[in-house]
Write a structure and sequence with these properties.
Cyt_c-like_dom, Cytochrome Bc1 Complex, Chain D, domain 2, 3 domains, metal ion binding, Multihaem_cyt_sf, 11 helices, elongated, mainly alpha, 263 residues
């Protein structure tokens, strides 16, 4: 009978938090704060029914990542500015908007703790730019990402995520890898990661609306702009270190096709 009553109490705490069980087992270890905001899990996720730390803290959102739960805070605003400045949507879907070249972040945030996402940004995977951010900057970015979840329109059909397996002795045959790859990298949906250089900017999503407007300083990149830049980079950007890239008609056609396949 005692066990039955105990189970019933936990069930009611989870189902009806307004009855005074906002913290459930959380308050055995943590002081109550922001009582007016409701349950602990409303801001921090986790499992309030367990006394076991590893279970109670499953997918926990620590306080520094929970600013997004309090509305338009300075942390969220700063994070949004960085998301736009770094053009994260050129590869990721955030708030329902962005290219699907890499993992959609809206769904990732539901299955990964924020600390794991922070570590992934600080030590990026192959193909992801290293933005040289400090941990404080990444924390506000993660807050901004959480704030965007659920804002976008639901997609009628989720596109499959294409996985590319690379061989160590893969021949370098495509025109991007030969002509652009020594200085640039580019993630594409059809061809995977191309190029190995980090001297020049990452070109993932170059011809999409989510790439920064850096052609001649303020314009979006188009195929025409790309051709002009390849022919005479310093005519477009006087201080660039990039040399002219000589391409024949077939190579130029193939390069434009590869870059256009990023969408």
């Amino acid at each position: 009978m005692v066990a039955l009553l105990s189970s019933l109490t936990v069930f009611l705490c989870l189902l009806l938090p307004a009855w005074g069980c906002q913290g459930a087992q959380c308050l055995n270890c943590h002081p109550h704060h922001y009582r007016e905001r409701g349950t602990c899990t409303g801001c921090h996720r986790g499992n309030p029914a367990s006394k076991r730390k590893n279970v109670a803290h499953h997918l926990l959102i620590p306080g520094r990542y929970a600013h997004f739960t309090m509305g338009k805070t300075p942390a969220v605003a700063q994070g949004n500015r960085l998301v736009e400045q770094l053009a994260c949507r050129r590869c990721h879907v955030i708030g329902g908007k962005g290219n699907r070249l890499a993992t959609p972040l809206d769904s990732l945030l539901a299955t990964r703790p924020p600390g794991e996402i922070t570590a992934a940004i600080l030590s990026p995977a192959q193909g992801m730019p290293d933005f040289k951010l400090d941990e404080a900057q990444v924390v506000v970015i993660v807050n901004a990402l959480f704030a965007e979840v659920g804002k976008g329109e639901k997609q009628g059909r989720e596109l499959p995520l294409v996985v590319h397996f690379e061989k160590a002795d893969k021949p370098v045959g495509d025109v991007f890898s030969r002509k652009c790859g020594p200085c640039h990298r580019m993630l594409t949906m059809r061809h995977g990661l191309l190029g190995a250089g980090t001297i020049g900017p990452n070109l993932s999503g170059l011809l999409t609306p989510f790439y920064p407007s850096t052609y001649a300083g303020t314009k979006r990149w188009t195929e025409e702009h790309l051709v002009l830049h390849l022919h005479n980079p310093r005519q477009v950007s006087p201080h660039t270190l990039m040399q002219p890239i000589v391409l024949n008609t077939g190579e130029l056609r193939d390069l434009k096709a590869i870059i256009a396949a990023q969408e």
